[in-house]
Specification:
Largest sheet: 5 strands, antiparallel
Helix content: 10-25%
CATH superfamily: Ribosomal protein S6/Translation elongation factor EF1B
Number of strands: 5
CATH class: Alpha Beta
Distance between the termini: 10 Å
Strand content: 35-45%
CATH topology: Alpha-Beta Plaits
Order of helices and strands: EHEEEHE
Length: 89
């Protein structure tokens, strides 16, 4: 089965949530079928907020992207996510 690379811009809820905190929060309980690439890019936003641009590799299967997005949106510390790139590997 093929794999898919997804790139998301992940915005924190407040300036108190650092990019390192976001990465740790996501990695700690990430379902095993998803892989988060190392060293996500920090992205300065506004009003002191700094988000991350994170890359995920997942299997190409129905519902996998929705499951990943539901997982990311389940955190109170994350304000929003936005996919910026997707490609089949």
């Amino acid at each position: 089965m093929a794999e898919v690379l997804l790139v998301y811009e992940i915005r924190p809820e407040s300036p108190d949530v650092t990019p390192q905190n976001l990465e740790k929060l996501i990695r700690d309980n990430l379902p095993t079928k998803y892989k988060m690439q190392n060293d996500p890019e920090e992205k300065p936003l506004f009003f002191g907020l700094v988000g991350i641009v994170a890359q995920f590799i997942m299997p190409e299967e129905d519902g996998a992207q929705d499951e990943l997005e539901d997982y990311l949106n389940s955190f109170e510390e994350i304000s929003s996510i936005q996919m910026s790139f997707v490609t089949r590997l």
